[in-house]
Design a protein that fits this description.
heterodimer; A: alpha/beta; Rossmann fold; 4-stranded antiparallel β-sheet; 9 helices; 10 strands; about 25% strand; B: mainly alpha; elongated; binds adenosine-5'-triphosphate; binds magnesium ion
Chain lengths: ~250, ~260
């Protein structure tokens, strides 16, 4: 039972974004994926639900090779592994409540009233219940992200992928998201992969960190390893210093 | 010289690529229909949005189309006193050609372009990936309901349009060409046959099919952000218009 990356390469044309990613996450773990922007963090986690296929290498979820299965089998994986997108990906044409109701209505054989009730409970959990009737275009980024989290949790996933869940959130909401993630991991034993730049979030929540750098997982390990690391690249990233050995593409 | 050949080759490859993409989309749509697996709620919503909301513009277009037919004819009608031809001429032209083509183009402009923009925006804002991530098949949830709605609605709108166009023609006949309603009606009812209506409705069905497929394809294959969406809408409308005119030629040819 785990998500495993084995030597995953992913190229876009001649652009080599991932060149041998190895990492894994078990149920109950909170793996934070860190790295500079544009390094390929979003690309990495999209492989887990088959939105991207590796150029070479293996990605498996609980023993099923995601890179090999048919589109139809992918839909079973996707019910088990939820994803919160970096830009939320809420459906413009549906109200916030309808956004959360959609997957429940589609997958769980529930009566309409029960679907509504479940969706409202989820929105309440992220503090968005009083805005349930609004549309995604009527609220800000931070609020959209919270609704996206509620929607992702609607099918009781075994794994949840968060792409920068606290970016754009005020500190209070951000800490609430952190505790929501911790709750998922401890109470429901969900495996969480969180892409994040939020150092507070990382050091208060992570059980494990994987750092993406130059197409590979430069270092993966428990949080203490990063705290005590003397590697100059890691030190520079964690201290947020502009000078150091780290290569930041584009600068 | 080498460049020219390369350009032609590239163009041919692109054409094959696009045709292949369209056929693949068609195949996927058909696959989702047997047995029918599509979202009924979305289907109804699209029937309303694409069909019911198009009624005013279709009525307006049809009314004046009927009128124009008569205005064009009125010069000759007056000169030769051919009042007994007006009803027949208007009905024949509107039902078989002008009606389906103009309404098809109108529908493409209003509904097809909107559809492309909507799907394209969903692609670039990752809403399509979002659907997939929730274990919902975009084909069944988005595409099939839209394709069906467009085909059905253009067909129905053309029936409405036909009626309105004849009303328009009769009215303009009375006002402009001095053709009494009785004369118009006699000419119309004696010379225009069910076959003419059917001819036009077959075309409407085909045009609906063309608009739906090209607009969905253009939307789903958008690349490159908002600029890409604009380009796709443009492509969709041009492709649909070409498709309508070219298929009309072949349909007219093979149906008569
Ligand atoms: N569909 C695609 N086609 C071509 N290139 C892509 C595609 N998706 C991602 N890339 C490229 O892959 C690289 C990594 O992108 P990715 O979105 O994973 O970065 P990231 O680490 O998530 O950065 P950020 O922190 O800014 O979100 C980028 O250079 C991007 O241009
Ligand atoms: Mg990203």
């Amino acid at each position: 039972m785990s998500i495993i990356f084995k030597d995953v390469h992913r190229y876009f044309g001649s652009k080599k974004v991932l060149t041998g990613v190895n990492m894994s996450v078990q149920p109950g773990e909170k793996l934070f994926v860190i790295g500079t922007s544009g390094v390929g963090k979003s690309v990495t986690i999209k492989h887990i639900i088959g939105l991207l296929k590796p150029t070479s290498g293996e990605v498996s979820v609980d023993g099923v090779r995601v890179d090999k299965v048919s589109e139809k089998e992918l839909f079973t994986i996707r019910r088990k592994v939820a994803m919160v997108f970096q830009a939320s990906a809420l459906f413009d044409s549906l109200s916030l409540l309808e956004n959360v109701m959609l997957p429940i209505r589609k997958h769980l054989k529930l009566k309409d009233a029960e679907v509504r009730k479940k969706a409202m409970a989820l929105l309440d959990e992220v503090g968005m219940l009083k805005h349930a009737g609004l549309y995604p275009s009527e609220i800000g980024d931070g609020m959209r992200k919270r609704v996206a989290i509620a929607r992702a949790l609607s099918l009781d996933p075994a794994y949840v992928l968060f792409d920068e869940p606290t970016t754009g959130l005020d500190p209070v909401s951000a800490r609430r998201v952190d505790s929501l993630i911790s709750q998922l991991a401890t109470e429901r034993n969900a495996g969480c992969i969180i892409v994040s730049h939020d150092l507070v979030s990382i050091f208060s929540t992570a059980t494990k960190i994987a750092m993406v750098y130059k197409g590979i997982i430069y270092k993966e390990g428990p949080i203490e390893d990063f705290h005590s690391s003397t590697d100059p690249v890691i030190r520079q990233f964690l201290s947020g210093s502009s000078s150091g050995p780290m290569e930041t593409p584009g600068f | 010289m080498y460049n020219l050949i390369a350009k032609i080759g590239e163009g041919a490859l692109n054409l094959c690529h696009e045709t292949g993409g369209l056929l693949h989309l068609l195949f996927m749509v058909i696959k989702s229909l047997f047995p029918p697996r599509f979202d009924p709620g979305e289907f109804l919503r699209n029937l309303y949005k694409m069909g019911v909301k198009s009624v005013p513009i279709i009525i307006l277009t049809a009314f004046f189309t009927g009128g124009i037919m008569v205005i064009q004819a009125s010069v000759f009608v007056k000169r030769f006193g051919a009042t007994s031809l007006v009803g027949w001429g208007a009905g024949y032209a509107v039902f078989r050609e002008v009606g389906p083509i103009l309404l098809g183009l109108m529908f493409s402009g209003r509904v097809g372009s909107n559809n492309t923009a909507e799907l394209g925006t969903m692609v670039v804002t990752e809403q399509i990936d979002g659907l997939k991530a929730l274990g919902i098949d975009p084909m069944q949830y988005l595409i099939v309901p839209r394709v069906l709605s467009m085909i059905i609605m253009l067909f129905l709108l053309t029936i409405i349009g036909d009626v309105i166009a004849i009303v328009g023609a009769a009215l303009f006949g009375i006002l402009i060409a001095d053709v009494s309603f009785a004369a118009f009606w006699t000419s119309f009812s004696q010379n225009v046959h069910v076959a003419d209506v059917v001819h036009g409705l077959i075309k409407a069905g085909v045009f609906g099919f063309i608009v739906s497929l090209t607009s969905c394809y253009a939307g789903m294959t958008v690349r490159g952000g908002a600029v890409g969406v604009g380009r796709a809408v443009n492509n969709a409308v041009v492709t649909a218009a070409l498709g309508i005119v070219i298929s009309d030629y072949f349909l007219t040819y093979s149906l008569s």
